[in-house]
Amino acid sequence: MMHLSLLELQVLLSIITLRPNAYAGTILDEVNKRTKRDLWHGTVYAALERLERQGLVRRVQEREATPRRGGKRKFMFRLTAPGRQTLTRSLRTIVPFLQPSGVLAAQRMRRKA
């Protein structure tokens, strides 16, 4: 079973959220917005490259260059079947901790004490 870092998990979730417009820049914006962080482009690019090497995402080149980007083509990112499976397994291990009897409940109990 493949293990994901927190950033890799956030990137995969962003790709699903943004589809079909999951470009490196939009992924960065989504991760920063949802985590209230200020990550650098290089951080997200490195995570995308790791995920691509592991076969969890694939890069798809846009057919047409956009005039707004000076003629450069953008690359969209999509989850592969193994990427979806890995994400699903990861979420299955995390979500139970978010249930009322999980980590959040334990934090609430500590605050009351």
List the helices and strands and how they pair.
Blueprint: H1 6-18, H2 24-35, H3 41-53, E1 57-61, E2 75-79, H4 81-98, H5 103-112
What characteristics describe this protein?
two-stranded antiparallel sheet, 58% helix, globular, mainly alpha, Arc Repressor Mutant, subunit A, 113 residues
Descriptive overview:
The chain has 113 residues and is mainly alpha-helical. It has a single domain (6-112), classed as Arc Repressor Mutant, subunit A (Orthogonal Bundle). It has helices at residues 6-18, 24-35, 41-53, 81-98, 103-112, and strands at residues 57-61, 75-79. The protein has a two-stranded antiparallel sheet.
Report a brief summary of the structure.
With 113 residues, the protein is mostly helical. The chain is built from 5 helices and 2 strands, in the order H-H-H-E-E-H-H. The protein has a two-stranded antiparallel sheet.
